[in-house]
Amino acid sequence: MAKVAVVYWSGTGNTEYMANSIVEGAKGAGAEVETFTAGDFSPAKVAEFDVIAFGCPSMGEEVLEESEFAPMWDEVKGELSGKKVALFGSYGWGDGEWMRNWVAECNEIGATLIGEGLMINETPDDEGVEECKALGASLA
Question: Which of 113, 110, 103 lies closest to 138, judged by CA?
């Protein structure tokens, strides 16, 4: 049974909704799951998990949220080489540049990506919820 962390930041609740659906999918597939907000996750926790799903919406000019999520990410990413990682987040504009950049950064640091980064426009609809659950199941 995989031990999974779901770490996220959410401003409007859309990414939190995604995180909860990912947790549901992972638990449904038999994983042991812990959920963290970005401010509650640290590099010391990385080794405790087999897989970590990170979630952050697109902010500003298609960047990660800068006050809480990005500082946590900058501290943690040095521990992710060889670690199984999934990325997810919501967006309201743009074309997904923030996710492409984030995926590229994970590849550069040697993380083992699960999927290509799940992006959902605004609040997940039924199809989006199922995509989140499927991502969660793939983490188990």
Answer: 113
